[in-house]
């Protein structure tokens, strides 16, 4: 049975950048992470819009604010994957194609849940720590966001 984990951050500054992910999940050469649930919203009350994407990455984000993945089953060990938010070391060179893209008003909450067996699966090899980046790709104004990403490994 797969081990499942959750990472989140609340009310973080999320200025638009083509190369700085709002969140990153860093895989390991021995695992493939599978995102199965994503929630994103804003605690602010203005009326702005943004476009978002989940992209595969081919290298780990080495900077940003570390987030410790929490096991959804308290009997599971620590996650082999790492996570961070506002992770500036992931560059456009290591970002892959978008696998999920959506537009969202700041006053709305977005939730995506994978159909069983249709999770977003990271790349993995003996030399590459494949992972994920949550990117704000377009915005009408900067605003803070809160997110939760749940994945299995």
Report on this model:
There is one protein chain. With 153 residues, the chain is mainly β. It has one domain. 0% of the residues lie in helices and 48% in strands. The chain contains no helices and twelve strands. The strands form two sheets. Strands 1, 3, 6, 9, 10 and 12 form a six-stranded antiparallel beta sheet that branches. A six-stranded antiparallel beta sheet has the order 5-7-2-11-4-8, with no helix packed on it. It is globular. The mean pLDDT is 86.
A few lines on this structure:
This protein has strands at residues 4-12, 23-26, 34-41, 49-57, 65-67, 70-71, 82-85, 95-105, 110-113, 120-121, 131-139, 145-152. The chain has 153 residues and is mainly beta.
Helix content: under 10%
- SSE order: EEEEEEEEEEEE
Strand content bin:
over 45%
Could you say how many structural domains there are in total?
1
Radius of gyration: 15 Å
Terminal CA distance reads 10 Å
The profile of the biggest β sheet is:
6 strands, antiparallel
- Look at the structure and give the mean pLDDT: 86
Structural class: mainly beta
Q: Low-confidence spans: pLDDT under 50, at least 5 residues?
A: none
Number of helices, counting only DSSP H or I runs of 4 residues or more: 0
Count of strand segments: 12
Describe the global form: globular
